[in-house]
Automatic annotation (TrEMBL):
One of its GO terms (cellular component) is nuclear outer membrane. The keyword Transmembrane helix applies. It comes from the Eukaryota. Transmembrane segments: none annotated. It is found in: Nucleus outer membrane. It is a single-pass membrane protein. This is DUF829-domain-containing protein. It comes from Dissoconium aciculare CBS 342.82.
Length: 312
């Protein structure tokens, strides 16, 4: 008997499978007043996960989804899986990438219809907003493209006029500078581990990554510098707080890069909190200390929803 897909078992399903099967949605069952009360305090209106390039299997993504379903049982969860093919040579035009993201864009926009210009009171009010959880630089690239699509839905470039009120950003194992070896290591995690498929896959991947890095340097595709700069652009995700979760022993993205970016975000006026693991694998922090990870996420989200500053 085939093993059931872990995400399907959690009631996730593609929104528009004919456009992109890697955009999946979990919609909580209709609840009674008693059910809603059992969910505890305030919750985000939607949780959006943009996943990493390598090794983002359904089983690994399900770890995060299962925890979010427990923390916020009445909140929809949208998964946008980042695939190497989404940023392949054939799809290097951002218009092609954004077309594949259109189901996510339309769904998020439907939750926050623009009915009137924001008031001075509503501009600082983040309750019932979207919580964005980003994994690695691959998830950053996807989140940024989605953010640019949402910004075009806005009536202006001012961060206070964003159509989507973001509760805050959680950045897991990102952002950072990626050299050839780092990208190759991350992308190789998507290859089946059994031989000879693994060796064949790595051989095919090597020249593609070489070309991709060259295209980054030439400015043809988004570079790591672009990603790090744009994440601190308040016209994309607003002025909400940021939580950085990372490990000192990450072999894909250097901890110093993430720490430097977090420091820059704080200097720009963002409310920043960091949680640093002494020894954990890239995009697998809950495996090292699940309780610490989810305590940090829950505390951050609670403060963000209430508008309180982080205690560093």
């Amino acid at each position: 008997m085939a093993t059931p897909d872990p995400l399907r078992a959690l009631s996730f399903a593609p929104i528009k499978p004919h456009i992109n099967r890697n955009i999946l949605l979990y919609t909580p069952p209709t609840s009674t007043g008693e059910d809603a009360a059992a969910g505890g305090g305030p919750s985000p209106k939607v949780i959006v996960l943009t996943t990493w390039f390598g090794g983002a299997t359904s089983g690994r993504i399900a770890v995060y989804c299962r925890a979010y379903q427990r923390l916020y049982p009445q909140t929809p969860i949208l998964i946008v899986r980042t695939q190497v093919t989404d940023y392949s040579l054939a799809n290097r035009q951002l218009s092609a990438v954004q077309a594949r993201l259109s189901p996510a864009h339309k769904y998020i926009s439907s939750l926050f219809p623009i009915t009137s210009p924001p008031t001075s009171e509503s501009r600082g009010h983040r309750q019932e907003g979207a919580l964005l959880h980003i994994f690695s630089n691959g998830g950053c690239a996807t989140a940024l493209q989605l953010g640019k699509m949402l910004r075009r839905s806005s009536r202006g470039e001012d961060a206070s006029h964003l159509p989507i009120p973001f509760v805050g950003l959680i950045l897991d194992s990102c952002p950072g500078m990626l050299a050839f070896d780092n990208i190759y290591a991350a992308a190789s995690m998507q290859i089946p581990q059994s031989q000879p498929l693994y060796s064949i896959g790595r051989a095919i991947l090597w020249p593609y990554i070489k070309v991709y890095v060259a295209m980054q340097r030439a400015g043809i595709v988004t570079s790591s510098n672009d990603v790090m700069r744009d994440l601190n652009d308040s016209t994309l995700f607003g002025l909400g707080p940021r939580l950085f979760l990372f490990s000192k022993t990450d072999t894909v993205i250097a901890a110093d890069d993430i720490a430097a970016h977090a420091k820059q975000a704080a200097e720009l006026g963002f409310d920043v909190r960091t949680e640093v693991w002494e020894d954990a694998v890239h995009c697998a922090l809950p495996m090292a200390d699940s309780q610490r990870y989810w305590n940090a996420v829950e505390a951050f989200t609670s403060r963000a929803l209430s508008g309180r500053k982080a205690k560093l």
